Amino acid sequence: TTNHGTQLKQWYQRRVRADFLAYLSADGVVLPPSLIPAPPAKQQADTSDEDSELEDDEEWEETPQVAQPDFPDLENTIKQGMERLGGEVFVKLNWSAPRDVSWMLHDNTLCCRCPLDVILLLKGSEFIQHDLTQAFMECRDGISEVPTGGFVLTMRRFESMIPAGEFRCFVKGNQLVAVSQRHHRQFLPTIVADRINILNDLQRFFFNYIQNKFPDPDYVFDVYRASTNRILLIDFNPFCRVTDPLLFGWDELSAMVGGQQPPVFRILENQESIKGHPFAANRIPRDIVEINNQQDINEFVSMFNNGKFNDSDDEDL
């Protein structure tokens, strides 16, 4: 499997400089000061509050200062891309989107409306870290950790999509061997009811527009079926374990032989088939989300310091 052929080159792209790549790879989340909103003006407080603030200030003064990153050129590039693409964008590096940290944005989507949204998602995502350090892990044609042409920031216009219209297609030996619904943790009755027409449309799209045109014989592509006979190509991915097989397994996909029978079309048949959220491990504990005021924070810290959290009771959002 090669991985250069699945890089994105047709969207709004700009080369990423080495200092920003180093920032993404570094531990911790320190945002550029130019992107941090100004705090609200302080209201007049009584004497006890002022004394408390002074004590807090003294404690902060003893804390070592962390170097703050600064990427004015990148921020301008992101703003230019957003203006060109209509204001709301979907962002990736060469291969991966930061889908594991969509919870960081207020609407729980990957819709970025400002440079802060873009940098926050890229910095917090384990998927992006994979792009930076292990993108060629499953490849047999080289050991380089840097893609041809370097790393690029890729943006496209953000479009809201109906989950029932998204599908992932698996191609082996230039034959379409399998199709899975993209949102594999949701039971979507409309897919069940229209499964025959959906598969026919996807096969027709593959035969007419993709087959024998992609540089590799084995690959994965994502599509959006906006309506009958109207299919939109979304993305390409390598045919290997770094790509999520969704409702399949990679041992099963690797053993498939195309051309001898129709592709396997796998969907969730009922509500009982649903499993847990795929990115639950990447989310923050419910206890933190439910903190509403200073008293809640103090109680949370006290419970944590006293070892009152039981791992078996943890519930991620």
Protein architecture, described:
The strands form two sheets. A five-stranded mixed sheet has the order 7-6-4-5-8, covered by helices on one side. Strands 1-3-2 form a three-stranded antiparallel sheet, covered by helices on one side. Mean pLDDT is 80; it is low at 1-10 and 311-317. The chain has helices spanning 18-25, 47-61, 72-85, 115-124, 126-133, 189-193, 195-210, 250-255, 286-289, 294-305, and strands at 12-15, 89-92, 152-157, 166-172, 175-181, 219-227, 230-238, 264-266. The chain is α+β, with helices and mostly antiparallel strands. It is globular.
Distance between the termini: 35 Å
What are the secondary-structure elements, in order, as H or E?
EHHHEHHEEEHHEEHEHH
Class based on secondary structure composition and strand pairing: alpha+beta
Count of alpha and pi helical runs: 10
Query: Based on CA inertia axes, which overall geometry fits?
Result: globular
Counted beta strands: 8
Compact overview of the structure:
With 317 residues, this protein is an alpha+beta fold. Helices cover 31% and strands 15% of the residues.
